[in-house]
Amino acid sequence: MQVDDEREYVEYVRLRLPRLHRVAYLVLGDEHRAQDAVQNALTTLYKRWSGRGQVDNLDAYVHTMVVRACLADQRRPWARVLLRAEPPDRPVDEAGGLVDERLAIRQCLRRLPERQRIVVVLRFLCDMSIADVAATLGRSENTVKSHTAAALRTLRDAFESLPAGAEAQPGRSL
């Protein structure tokens, strides 16, 4: 790779890495696996960087690479093993309940089946259209709609079962 290309690649990744990592974390629910998935996707991107001009929408292309790296990670048998003896300590809340709300949302997202969780993350947290989610996952739009509807039902039930004060407030983000 030429020096200018490498600089462009580094700058491209630097600007997008937090969002890519956030998506991977929300899909996988594990910090380390998310880092691995993003790393795998960015390694592939590095190898293909010279062909970036042939891609209509580079951001969408990279986003799809990260989501597919997450899906590949979930297919590995070790990905089904949970190695935590006890839940992690709760972080100190300096944002007036925001940490509790985020934890509640993440807890509810983890209750979703894999495909439904991925669809919710892509649709509502990444603000992707149904068509874009379908293209990213290689599924039909009707499948995406079905997963969305089922996930929203499950999330609604999960939020209703949370203890008082743990519900997420409307308009708050993860």
UniProtKB/TrEMBL annotation:
GO biological process: DNA-templated transcription initiation
Record keywords: DNA-binding, Sigma factor, Transcription, Transcription regulation
Recorded coiled-coil stretches: none
RNA polymerase sigma factor 70 region 4 type domain span: 103-155
Domain RNA polymerase sigma-70 region: from-to ranges: 14-76
GO molecular function, one term: sigma factor activity
InterPro entries reported in the protein's UniProt record: RNA_pol_sigma-70-like (IPR039425), RNA_pol_sigma-70_dom (IPR014284), RNA_pol_sigma-E_actinobac (IPR014325), RNA_pol_sigma70_r2 (IPR007627), RNA_pol_sigma70_r4_t2 (IPR013249), RNA_pol_sigma_r2 (IPR013325), RNA_pol_sigma_r3/r4-like (IPR013324), WH-like_DNA-bd_sf (IPR036388)
Pfam families assigned: Sigma70_r2, Sigma70_r4_2
CDD domains listed in its UniProt record: Sigma70_r4
Family per record: Belongs to the sigma-70 factor family. ECF subfamily.
Protein name: RNA polymerase sigma24 factor
Species assigned in the record: Dactylosporangium matsuzakiense
